[in-house]
């Protein structure tokens, strides 16, 4: 044991040296995906940072005349590349989501007459927003710079994990303002602000909090602001509706005299005199626990005022993270796609603990994380597929902490369930399934058990999967499927539960719990109960066992599926494609089905229904912009035509990812789309997280070196690869032929070399 | 030193034995003051308890059709004796205030069809409220019992310091309900509830919180409920206005399935089956810190289910507190008045720390009280006069903790000011002056310095008194008075500041700070700057130094005074009545002025203006129902006619206090009215807190024994006292004649005997 450790250390020492010194940040373009549907943000953040400090180009209200405002969807991440104006810089953003929240603590520097409303894009000068142009904009990992044309202010942003750092270069003026707009937010709507508070402690230190009832119902985020220079004066505005005691005895004139203000809708501003080019720096520390916690986070992470140092420290974190996979490619575009995908893959989930380990739990009490970092922002329906499996290769310790965070969630959740979509100590129940179990099963399969008891983790999975009154699980357990009457997405639920149950069974088997293995292996077969042999599709099934009469397998509207149609979802048996193939009538029909999925022409009326993606997000009827089909291209590996997997994967990589603002074919979904890209570019993909098998596809690079936390390196060499040579001719692992178009995690974790020999013709 | 201590212990041991074993609780009638203007509550509380568990007979909205609803004023304490129905039992109440708040966590037991609205007094059966009658009502110190006629339920209430304990005896039924109405509150108005939360942890344990924007702007109170018997089922109702994600994905059906609910307006109910007479017990623990804190408070204070024991423990606390003053009187009514006054004097301020010492501070952060109990509910404009001076005799350690709480308030307050009227970690700025300084000065004068640095305390007083932008202090410092233009209550402010400044000067002198002594002794003379020799009254003065033209010394409307007219306020120079007498033209005119104050007939139109009091609250033009004149009856002691003080005091005692529900002539004001009664009944009164002198009045009893915390006893013997014999003929202290109608604190604290020789004729 000792010897092993020592060896590992030696190796790791050796490998650190082995890492190339090439800077990878130049290949990262956070701007990718900021146009149209990507829903990424261009601002600054550290890997998995609590702070995502980024410009808002608009803050559209969720409601317009009391109705849902479809435009709000564009602003899930606060920024749209085509916009001409910037409203300000806020400190929290989701990366690539379809629903949204956050946008906390908008800060905007201005000069001249004080304006307190953002104004509109149509009438920019009606408010404090400023015009900007992309020519004056720099967007890097952990660094963002832009010129605010209306004010001749250069704004620069960087961060540490919990602190946002603004550096504003002002012109000479006696009327510089820094506005703190607590009314602004992403996916805002009337009364989303529950309560807000600002406390001016002195002329350089401000604290406060924002409590919202949004996608997270019971959310409070605390802040502490520090200015590098004392303000000369400050002011408050309270736009809240009447409060009985607001002006009690006329003593509470909150706009002056008093150093604190609270209310539902409040703003503050701070005034400065500046010389030409004078830099005013602003640190904004966040805490999920308290204002004291925010001050503590600031003191711990950024005690001083050296902007360049903070930027360099954060970028060094990125370099270290990016270097875990070093690729070689003749294509700059390839490197830009790849390292930007790496960047987008390492933003969510986000740290949700103060530096002292305290965090708010699902029970709305304050807890202390004992020996781990607590995370939030779990978009699990998306990320269980490829993102967490990727972490199990390049960030296993972090992923184990994410598992511990999910177990803490389970312990603290009033429903005693693992997270579905958790955000800031709240559960929003978004999407279907209970895929936290797949993330846990995958970690157990790969033996990343740092600091948690796998038996307890298994119990959490089982209790969650037996939660009878959640989303038709009771019927699912009794009948083997979720009846159409019980849920609008009964088929998706049945299929996803079946896969999740299989992953539980795998973990149970590994942990020697034969009872659980049997129970959930049986449940894992339930996918078959919603397969309709007559139509050849998975199809909504009624209580009485019959299939729903009117049924359109091309439609995604009320057909029993979520973010997908029957054509795509019918292939959702990732844990047993072979059995699915038989169910669907054998190999030849299965291949025909896959072929037509990619080649058919989807009529426009059906495209119109398809959520979250652009026209480019579809290939035939294959929807890459949504997740349910992310494994589909790899299913040819279960047939005798694996070369079709290789061709399809390369086609998807080419068609769906570009190193441009509009380069993402759909929402990045907290890194899942990027993780798919990373795996597929490397040449393999985890079709069924929960086991150790990856399916071989077609690498789009000339080679890669994976630096593992255990000190091992796994080398991928790709010979004769080109846009034409997408077909695998031969595969060797450590010099020996690798059969079966499969790779196992064990073969990676022990290090070694995988060599792809590529050619222009399918190897039949 | 050692010897001294030992002696003290011996004495104290001796004195404990010396205390009579007579039960005093039978003389306590919490119901006194619950009719009309007393604003006391009849429910259960421990001395200074965090919980005041009491019935609401109505919860009137602060607003009616968008306008102030004058009826809300009657319900400052939630209960009006004349009402016929009880809405439920809530856990927090102010005692005797004029503005109000609280009424948190209303619980109502019912049987039969579930009703979730309280209904109205006019249509009782339209809601869950129940009829009751005083014949089925018992109201004792820390015990309340009533029969809910509509449901045939016997409700009993008792408390510990932080936990309310309900005991409900149900009839036989399969439809018993316990309703938790989080929408209910005192001085409620739309949007006063900012956010509320209920978490059903299991079938006997519930936690949650209520966040309000009321008289306290930023207030959150947390709770934990424990049932003695598991409920069979529960339900939620969310009456909040639309929330975008309330029913997200249809999974958040908060009325069932889910064990938690949050929103602005929510209710919960818990269902039980009961046998005839079955008792269901409910413990409700409070915390200003967290739900965990509430659970911890419950476990520490009431781990079990023995209602009788909890009641007995709380009543023993009351017996110990009441026994600090043992009186002898031939009159039962006298004893009822006196011990009910003692009871009302020992309710506010209230404990505001969890059992672990944690509390929320004015800065909205959580703090830990280091070696003291933190208190809130400081109605200082009222209570600096007699209540805190009373504590300095019978509760000096507690009073020192109150001083420490005020210093913590100062440290944490964004305004860096001592409390004006503080409530639940918030400042509401109610009334005039900065009388915390008088409370601190009085504690320093009496050398009750337990655990705080008097120099730091003095600094807090000085900083507060120099807060230029608070309520005209800047002008007051510059001009020597608050100009009429600057404040609607400029004269009250000037007079009260001058007195407060004098008290600061006394503390400074005692602490050897000659600089501060000089500065504030000079400020203490400012009262003279608002005296108008022409009219002979204190009078609003303009910026230019002239007095306001149109001026009505009888009116309390916009005359520059608060809760008083010029006639009364002109006498507000408690720190130097002799100088005031000269200012007003010498003794004979001063005596005439005092005589006419008590004897003149105040025209009804002026009475109509007088706040907070009943017709009986006025004697001539002397207003006892409000505080500014509480010292006035004692001012004859500065003339050669002290017997008039003796006669007036006895007349006020007789006229203003009765052992009946309508027995209080005005709001009890957190115990100030009661403290006046206690001092005056004992025969002396602190006209100027901040020095050690009490003015002799006329004792209304035959004797009293004061048990001091230092182990000493001070005995008062009154010979030949009766309703006729109200005049002091002779006074001896420890056998020697006591001259000058004055008694000092030092003469009390060292123990001894004061003998009054009374007679039917003034001693001229």
Topology:
Two copies of one chain form a homodimer.
Chain A: H1 2-18, E1 44-45, E2 52-56, E3 63-64, E4 67-68, E5 85-86, E6 88-90, E7 106-111, E8 130-131, E9 137-140, E10 143-148, E11 153-159, E12 163-169, E13 173-181, E14 193-202, E15 205-212, E16 219-227, E17 233-238, E18 260-263, E19 266-274, E20 279-287, H2 291-301, H3 307-322, E21 325-328, H4 332-345, E22 350-351, E23 358-360, E24 366-368, E25 375-376, E26 378-379, H5 380-383, H6 387-394, H7 396-412, E27 421-423, E28 426-427, H8 436-445, H9 454-465, H10 473-479, H11 490-510, H12 514-523, E29 531-532, E30 537-538, H13 566-569, H14 577-583, H15 587-599, H16 604-609, E31 618-619, E32 622-623, H17 642-656, H18 672-682, E33 684-685, E34 693-696, E35 703-707, E36 713-719, E37 727-733, E38 736-737, E39 742-744, H19 745-749, E40 752-759
Parallel strand pairs in A: 36-40
Antiparallel strand pairs in A: 1-2, 2-6, 3-4, 5-8, 7-13, 9-10, 10-11, 11-12, 12-20, 13-19, 14-15, 14-18, 15-16, 16-20, 17-19, 21-35, 22-25, 23-24, 26-27, 27-28, 29-30, 31-32, 33-34, 34-39, 35-36, 37-38, 37-40
CATH architecture of the domain at 7-307 in chain A: Distorted Sandwich
Mean pLDDT of chain A, to the nearest integer, reads 94
Helix/strand structural class of chain A: alpha+beta
Order of neighbouring strands in the sheet with most strands of chain A: 9-10-11-12-20-16-15-14-18
Which spans of chain A of ≥5 residues are poorly predicted at pLDDT below 50?
1-17
Task: Describe the global form of chain A.
Answer: globular
Question: Which two chains have the most extensive interface, and how many residues on each?
Answer: A-B, 51 and 51 residues
**Percentage of residues in strands of chain A:** 15-25%
- The share of residues in helices of chain A is 25-40%
């Amino acid at each position: 044991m000792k010897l092993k450790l020592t060896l590992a250390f030696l190796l790791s020492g050796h490998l650190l040296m082995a890492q190339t010194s090439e800077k990878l940040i130049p290949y990262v373009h956070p701007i990718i995906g900021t146009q149209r549907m990507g829903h990424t943000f261009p601002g600054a953040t550290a890997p998995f940072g609590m702070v995502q400090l980024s410009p808002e180009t608009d803050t559209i209200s969720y409601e317009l005349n009391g109705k849902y405002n479809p435009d709000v969807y564009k602003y899930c991440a606060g920024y749209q590349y085509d916009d001409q104006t910037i409203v300000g810089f806020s400190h929290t953003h989701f990366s690539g989501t379809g629903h949204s929240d956050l946008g906390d603590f908008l800060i905007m520097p201005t000069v001249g007459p004080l304006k307190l409303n953002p104004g509109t894009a149509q009438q920019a000068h009606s408010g404090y927003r400023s015009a900007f142009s992309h020519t004056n904009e720099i967007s890097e990992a952990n660094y963002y710079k832009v010129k605010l044309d209306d004010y001749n202010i250069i704004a620069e942003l960087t961060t540490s994990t919990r602190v946002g750092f603004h550096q504003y270069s002002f012109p000479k003026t006696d009327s510089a303002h820094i506005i703190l707009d607590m009314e602004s937010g992403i996916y805002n709507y009337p009364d989303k602000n529950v309560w807000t508070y600002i406390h001016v402690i002195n002329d350089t230190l401000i604290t406060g909090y924002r409590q919202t009832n949004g996608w997270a119902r019971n959310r409070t985020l605390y802040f502490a602001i520090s200015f590098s220079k004392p303000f000369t004066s400050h002011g408050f505005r309270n736009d809240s509706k009447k409060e009985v005691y607001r002006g009690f005895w006329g003593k509470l004139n909150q706009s002056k005299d008093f150093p604190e203000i609270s209310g539902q809708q409040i703003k503050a501003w701070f005034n400065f005199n500046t010389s030409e080019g004078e830099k005013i720096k602003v640190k904004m520390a966040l805490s999920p626990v308290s204002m004291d916690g925010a001050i503590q986070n600031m003191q711990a992470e950024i005690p001083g005022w050296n902007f360049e140092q903070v930027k360099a420290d954060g970028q060094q974190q990125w370099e270290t993270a990016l270097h875990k996979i070093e690729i070689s490619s003749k294509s700059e575009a390839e490197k830009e796609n790849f390292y930007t995908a790496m960047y987008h893959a390492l933003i969510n989930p986000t740290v949700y603990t103060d530096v002292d380990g305290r965090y708010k739990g699902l029970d709305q009490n304050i807890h202390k994380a004992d020996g781990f970092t607590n995370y939030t922002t779990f978009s699990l329906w998306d990320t269980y597929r490829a993102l967490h499996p990727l972490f199990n290769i390049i960030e296993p310790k972090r992923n184990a902490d994410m598992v511990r965070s999910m177990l803490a969630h389970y312990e603290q959740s009033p429903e005693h369930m693992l997270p579905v979509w958790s955000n800031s100590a709240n559960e929003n129940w978004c999407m279907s399934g209970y895929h936290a179990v797949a993330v846990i099963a995958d970690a157990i399969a790969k033996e990343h058990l740092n600091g948690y008891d796998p038996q307890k983790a298994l119990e959490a999975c089982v209790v969650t999967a037996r939660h009878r009154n959640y989303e038709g699980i009771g019927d699912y357990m009794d009948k083997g499927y979720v009846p159409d009457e019980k849920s609008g997405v009964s088929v998706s639920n049945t299929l996803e539960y079946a896969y999740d149950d299989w992953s539980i069974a795998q973990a149970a088997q590994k942990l020697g719990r034969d009872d659980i293995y049997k129970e959930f292996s049986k449940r894992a077969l339930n996918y078959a109960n919603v397969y309709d042999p007559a139509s050849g599709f998975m199809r909504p099934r009624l209580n009485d066992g019959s299939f729903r009469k009117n049924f359109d397998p091309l439609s995604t509207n009320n057909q029993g599926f979520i973010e997908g149609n029957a054509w795509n979802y019918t292939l959702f048996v990732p844990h047993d494609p072979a059995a699915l193939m038989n169910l669907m009538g054998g190999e030849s029909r299965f291949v025909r089905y896959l072929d037509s999925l990619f080649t058919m022409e989807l009529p426009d009326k059906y495209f119109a229904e398809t959520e979250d993606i652009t026209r480019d997000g579809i290939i035939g009827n294959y929807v890459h912009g949504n997740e349910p089909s992310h494994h589909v291209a790899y299913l040819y590996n279960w047939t005798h035509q694996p070369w079709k997997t290789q061709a399809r994967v390369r086609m998807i990589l080419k068609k769906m990812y570009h190193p441009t603002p509009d380069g993402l074919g759909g929402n990045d979904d907290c890194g899942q789309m990027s993780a798919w890209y990373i795996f597929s570019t490397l040449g393999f993909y985890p079709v069924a997280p929960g086991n150790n098998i990856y399916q071989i596809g077609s690498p789009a690079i000339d080679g890669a070196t994976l630096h593992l936390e255990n000190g091992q390196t796994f080398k991928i060499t790709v010979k004769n690869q080109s846009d034409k040579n997408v077909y695998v001719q031969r595969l060797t692992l450590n010099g020996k032929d690798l059969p079966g178009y499969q790779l196992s995690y064990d073969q990676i974790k022990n290090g070694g070399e995988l060599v792809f020999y590529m050619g222009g013709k399918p190897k039949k």
